[in-house]
Amino acid sequence: MSKKRRIVVTSALPYANGDIHLGHLVEYIQTDFWVRFQKLRGNDCVYICADDTHGTPIMIRARKEGITPEELIARSHALHLKDFTDFQIAFDNYYSTNSPENKALSERIYRAVEQQGFVTKKTTPQLYCEHCRMFLPDRFVKGTCPKCGATGQYGDSCDKCGATYGAEELGQPVCTTCGGTPVVRDSEHLYFELEPQHDYLEKWIPAHTTSDVSNKLLEWFKEPLRGWCISRDAPYFGFEIPGYKDKFFYVWVDAPIGYMASLANWQAKQGGGKAGEVDVSMWNDPDVELYHFIGKDIIRFHCLFWPGMLHAAGFKGPNKVFVHGFLTVNGEKMSKSKGTFVNARTYLDNLPPEALRYYYAAKLGGTTDDMDLNLADFVQRVNSDLVGKITNIASRSAQMLQKKLDGRLASLAGHDEELALLAQLRAAGETIASLYEDRRFNQVVAQVCKLADAANEYFDRKEPWKTVKTDAEATRVTLTAALNAFRILAIYLQPILPVYAEKARALFGDAAWTWDSVAETVEGRTLGAYAYLASRIDAKQVEAMVAAATVKPADSGEVAHESRASKNKGKVAPSAPLKPEVAFPDLEKLDLRVGIVTSCEIVPKSSKLLKFVLDAGALGTRTIFSGIRAAYPDPAALVGKEVVFVANLAPRKMSVGVSEGMILFAGEPGACGGVLSPTTPAGGGCTVT
User: Fold this and answer.
1) pTM, two decimal places
2) Sign of the C-alpha dihedral computed for residues 169, 172, 175 and 176 taken in this order
3) Nearest to 334 by CA among 368, 295, 373, 366
4) Cα gap 626→648, rounded to integer Å
5) For the segment 279-320, what is each residue's pLDDT rounded down to a tens digit?
6) Cα(674)–Cα(390) distance, rounded to whole angstroms?
C-alpha cells in the first residue's frame, strides 16, 4: 500500500469587493475536484482559502455605502461562502486576510526579508488625484501603454503586449474613480528587490510550473529583475508597515500570506500548538506538499514575487503552481449586455449546481487554455451524457428492480458475462486516477462516458424489460450487474458530483466510499429508496438565467436625453442668470451619499414631482420629492437604480409631505421647467446609474 500523502491546496483568494461569478467558479470548482479526489484516494488533504480584504477599492466602496470596511468584508465573506457551499465546494478552512494571524505573519515575513537586505527605500514619482485626495493604486488609473501605445490599460501592466511599468509612465492617465487627470508627486516607498534572487528564481520557475507558464515568465530574466513596490500611502485599508507611519503593505503582499494564515487558523482549530503563537509548522514541513490553483492573470505574483518573498524569509515555496485560463461564454468574453456575465447566485436561482460542475469537468484539460461555456452545448451534454447515458443506467435498473422484483439484488457468482463487464470498468480505475492527478478532468468524463456506453450496451442487449415477464431471476442478475456498473461510475464521479454520489451511495446502503470501493460487488441486499439523481435541463431555464443576468440599455429617460443632445449638438443651450458665487468651504459642508431607489411614484395633483424612497444603508430610508417627472414618465423604471443625494440637507415640509434631502441629477437647463429649489433640481434627461 502506497504511503498516505499530506497535502495543502489553495485557490486564489476572491476579492471582497464583488460577487462570485461563473468565471471565478472555474478555479474553485476544479480545485474542489482535485481535493475531493485526493481525499477519496485516502490522502490527508486540506483545502484552504480566504477572502482577500485589503486595498483601496474596499475602502472606497465602504465609504460609498456609508459602512466600515470591516462591515463590508464581513458581508462579502458570508455571501461568498454561501455561494461556494451551494456549488458543493468544500473548503476545510475559509478565512479572511484581515485576521490577526495574517497581520502577525505579514510583519514576520517583512522583518525577515528586511534583515536579509532585500528591502530598499526609494523616492518615486506617483500619480496623485487631487480631486480624490489620494495616491492612485495601479488599478485606479488607466492610460496609454508606454511600450505599445494601447489605450485603456491599467497602471501596472498592459493586457495587449504584456509589458510591466509604473503607473506614472502611462500616457494620458485618468483616475478611474472620478475621471480626472492625476498629477505626479514624489513619495518614499519600500521595494522588495528581486534581482539578488535572479539565479534562484530562474531555476525555481521551470521546476514548479508548466512549460508554457515558465517560458512566459523567463522572458523577464533576460535583463535584471526590477524591484517590487510593497508599500502604499494612506489612506489605505490594510496592515500598517512596522516602523512606518501612514505606510501600508500593498494588498499583494499580505494576500498570498493569507494562505499561510488560513492554514495556521485551521491548525489552531485542530488543537495543539502554543497559545498565542501562529503555527506555521505544517506549511514548512518538508513532508507536506503545497499546491496553488490560480488563473493566468496573476502568475507574476504567484510565480515570481511570492516564491522570492518566501525564499528570502526562510519559508518553503509551493511544490507546483497550477495555472488555468479564462472563461468565455458562447465563444466570447463574458458580457453583461448579453446576459453572459452571470453571478453564481443568478445561476443557482435557475439551474442545478451539478450541471455546471459536470460541464466544467467535461471542458477542463489541465492547461492554461481558455475554457468556453457554450450554453447550447451545456444543455445538450448534461442531458445526453449525465442524464441520458450515466444516470439512465441507475434510473432504469433501480426502478425496475424495486417495482418488479422487490428491490433485492442477486448474486453474480458464476455469471461470467456480468463479472467481465464489472472487471472492464474496474480496470479503468488507475487510468482515471492518473487523469484526476494530472487535472485532465475532461478525460475523466470521457472515460466514464465510454464505460457508461459499455454498461448501456449490455443492458439493451439483455432486454430486461422483456425478460422480467418470463425469467425473473435472470432479470435480477442483469439489473444487479447494471447497478454495480453504475455504482463504479458514481465512485469515479464522486469528486466531480459529490451530492449526486451521496444519493447513489444511499441507494446501495453503503458506508462512505473510498477509491477502493470500486473493487466491491454489491449483492444479495435490498436497495434503498431511489432518489432522482439528475434532471434534464430545459433550454428555457438557461434563457431565464440569461435574462436575469442581462443588464438592460439605458432607460427611456436616458435615451430621450441622448436624443436631445444629438439634436442640439453644436448649439449652446440657453442659460439662466448665474447665481451668486459660493466659496469652496460651502461645498465641503455637503455630505453626499449613494442610495438605492426602492420605490418611485408620481405625486397626485402635481405635474412635476416624483416621490422617491431610498435605501440609504446605515442611514436607513429617506423619502425625497424631486421635480423631474417630465424626464421620467415611467417612474417604476427608476426602481433599483443608484442615486447620489445630499444626506445632510435639512428636511423640508411640503404640501405633499416632508422631503428628507435632495437627489442630484444632470440634464439640460430648462428641460424640467428651469425651476431650481432644494427639491426640484434641474431635470432634463436626468442620468441615474
Assistant:
1) 0.78
2) negative
3) 373
4) 16
5) 999 999 999 999 999 999 999 999 999 999 999 999 999 999
6) 69
